[in-house]
Amino acid sequence: MIRCRHIDRFCALAMLLALALTGLLFFGEALGIQPASSAPGYAYRLFDNSYVHTVDLQVEDWAEFTANAPQEAYTPCTAVIDGEAFYQVGLRAKGNNSLRLTEEYGLARYSLKLEFDHYVDGGTYYGLDKFSLDASFQDNSYLKTYLVYDMMAYMGVPSPLCSFVWVTVNSQPWGVFLAIEEPEESFARRNFGPDHGQLYKPDYRSLNAENADVALRYIDDDPSSYPNLFENAKFDVDAGDQARLIEALQVLSTGEDLKTAVDVDEVLRYFTVQVFVLNWDSYLGHTGHNYFLYEEDSVLSILPWDYNLAFGTYALGMTDPIRNPNVLINWPVNTPAKGKIMLERPLYHNLMKNRDHFAQYHAYFDQLLTEYFESGRYEAVIRETQSLIAPYVEADPTAFCSYTDHLLAVDTLLEVCRLRAESIRGQLNGDYPATLAQQAEHPGTGVNASHVDLRDLGGFQDLERANERQAAALAAVAQRRAD
User: Fold this and answer.
1) Which of 143, 176, 151, 135 is nearest to 412 (CA)?
2) How far apart are CA 205 and CA 293, in angstroms?
3) Residue 451 CB burial class (10 angstroms; 0-12, 13-18, ≥19)
4) What is the pTM for the complete model shown?
5) Which residues pair with residue 93 across a beta bridge?
6) H-type helices in 277-376, by residue range?
7) What does the pLDDT look like over 317-333, one tens digit per residue?
8) Rounded distance, CA 305 to CA 16, Å?
9) Cα–Cα distance for residue pair 452/413, rounded to 1 Å
10) What is the pLDDT of residues 399-427, one digit of tens each?
11) DSSP letter string, 198-251
């Protein structure tokens, strides 16, 4: 037997270390220590998309909140997420066109933002600083944003996590929403690590202005020439951040040595999905916004955001008539914007002038078609997710549409995806025109989509019919408070 006069001390020390290790395992997340999987706690809690979560928003006066929603001012609330209460959470409405139209039509179902560190310094939901609740505005399928993020993630593009939630207000039903991880500090750490770069959400002050910085055009070396970039930074910006971004834009403007300023592979994968889903309320559309820009070491990436108007729902300035399904579903992949817009979008246009980049763009389309659409993955994602949310959609008291219209929208989305994939396959094979110029020379060539009515995906006609339903839900919340 081995004896040691210090054995009691060693045993006591070992016990203390074991207790400390156990404490870290149980409480490490609360202390900011990430689990060994590297996935933050919120990723496998709220964003476990295998079931519909619950969020109860406890607000002092919901009627007052909805009445003041267009001002986008924060109000404190208690957010009870899957039965767990989080106090003093900042809550506000969100959106641009959707926010304006919801107010204009006298509706109450706004998309929302929950910010955990707005009132409480360092406040988080298991490491998440902010998430949004998307109202599925002009998306009767409830699935467009969810599907596009799934496509983006499948193609390796850093994308927000999302899952469906049943929202109640002061315990009264309010509807099924899509919870979306907001691209801020938590998102950046999850995707790019603790030493991540800068994140921007470029947006215009006025759509009538030139907005060259939103289009990522190089103007000059003066940071004040890029207010729509630097004033929309998600983190504090210093002179070094400004210089790196401007330097990258200058390289981009030349069209030369683009790999020194652009994560070319990531950007090509992004545009592959972006062009497929016919999303023109975006960088390639008239507005030029609704994307995030990531910069690290003077290299730019573009990240996805906001897809409720995808799949041809928003086609301002693209077609006449605006809803022509044959034109929209056969929209060419080689020139996904008209000439003037194309020339003003260097992140797409200058990349595609390089023969190798253009060939890789086509190769990514082939991958997306083969693995995601022709394999039937898209149909499985749509049908399985619709089946998951169906009881909640049917019971949704603030829905923009009837349940029957929801089912029609899901069928329409499936058909749009099928036809769009068929059209792009034909374009890649040379059977259908792949540019606007070729389409002008061969009008009517492409898949026949004349049986599709894109208004079935969601439109203004639904907003006109939703007022009474949403007013009743608002009254029920008010009655609950009175009781």
Assistant:
1) 143
2) 17
3) exposed
4) 0.90
5) 112
6) 325-329, 339-343, 346-352, 355-367
7) 555 545 789 999 999 99
8) 48
9) 10
10) 999 999 999 999 999 999 999 999 999 99
11) EEE----S-TTS--TTTTT----S-GGG-HHHHTTBSS---HHHHHHHHHHHHH
